Amino acid sequence: MEDYNEEYPAPAKSIKGYKIVIVILAVILGALSILYFQQVNQMKAEFAIERDTLTNRLTNLMNEYDSLQTENDTISKHLEEQRGKADSLLQRLKKERSFSAAKIRQYEKELGTLRTVMRGFVQQIDSLNTLNKKLINENVDYRKQISTEKMRADMAEEKADELSTKIRKGSVIRARDISLLALSSSDKVVTRAARASRLRVDFVLAANELATPGERHVYARITGPDGYVMANTSGAVFEFEGDMLTYSATRQIDYQNQDLAVSLYYNGAGITGGKYRVVIYMDGYQIGSNEVILR
User: What are phi and psi of 280, to 5 degrees?
Assistant: First the structure.
């Protein structure tokens, strides 16, 4: 019995040793599990921070896209497309459940591409705005120049009109030395209106180098003491400033820019003593007048 016990040790010691090993392994395994879960939780926390950071960056980028304003249709269309890509990337990011370092790098790459594209748009819009400002300034300068030229043209036209008016007025032939004489039946001058058979209007058409030479009609209106215009016939009228006026005497003359003595005759009735007014007309102008008393 004693030999048998010495050759085979008691199993209780071996079992005890195994238990100790198992306990140690369990402790190690537990420690490793705790460490693993800690690392996993830490990675999840870090990934959550990364996702929040990416989300904020994407949101800010979309706001920047929204803030870009341009009237260029092509750029506006591309802006809308890129803004849509940013929104799609944000939705994917929010729905992502399994993060990894590779996926984060992929999101950061896509975000970087969108930001690079946006910077290109900013440069294009700035260039267009600068060009528009330049064109606006050039347009303003051009309008000022046009306005100045128009003012000069208007002033030149005004001066030309003024000069034309002066020339036109200066070209009017004036009548001077207007007189009214009573004549007898033998055409002798009489001093009494009661002895007169007709009236003669004498005047001189003054020399005027600006006037156009040639033939024209000259008219005399004689207003008697009763205030009525004296006329040879009932149809003796001429046009003046849009109205038809009665004339007392008329004739055609040939004017050659030199003093020209003219006489007109009134052969009608109604010659009495008193104050007479004589007005001379030619070329659409009233060219002279005078008042004469016949006794």
Answer: -105, 135
- 293 backbone φψ class: left, alpha, beta (φ>0; ψ -120 to 50): beta
In the predicted model, is pLDDT for residue 20 greater than 50? yes
If we measure between CA atoms, which residue out of 295, 248, 246 comes closest to residue 272? 295
Note the pTM of the prediction, 2 decimals.
0.48
Query: Is the pLDDT at 245 greater than 80, yes or no?
Result: yes
Which amino acid is it at 275? K
**Of the candidates 236, 223, 243, 241, which has an alpha carbon nearest to the alpha carbon of residue 285?**
241
Question: Which residues face 288 on adjacent strands?
Answer: 280
Interatomic CA distance for residues 258 and 46, integer angstroms? 115
Least Cα distance to 288 among 198, 165, 204 occurs for: 204
Distance from chain centroid for Cα 281: 50
Query: What's the Cα-to-Cα distance from 48 to each of 43, 87, 105, 142, rounded to whole Å?
Result: 8, 19, 14, 60
pLDDT at 1 (0 to 100): 45
Its CATH class, for the domain covering 175-294, is mainly beta
Compute the 3-state secondary structure of the chain and give helix, strand, coil in percent, each to the nearest 5: 55, 25, 20
Structure tokens at 242: 């849009």
Pinpoint the alpha helices (H) of 68-100: 73-95
Comparing 187 with 158, the larger pLDDT belongs to 187
Q: Per-domain residue ranges for the chain? A: 13-124, 175-294
Q: First and final CA of the chain: distance in angstroms?
A: 200
> Quick one: CA torsion of 44, 45, 50, 55, rounded to 10 degrees?
100
Which one, of 257, 293, 287, lies nearest residue 274 by Cα? 293
Q: How far apart are CA 138 and CA 204, in angstroms?
A: 63
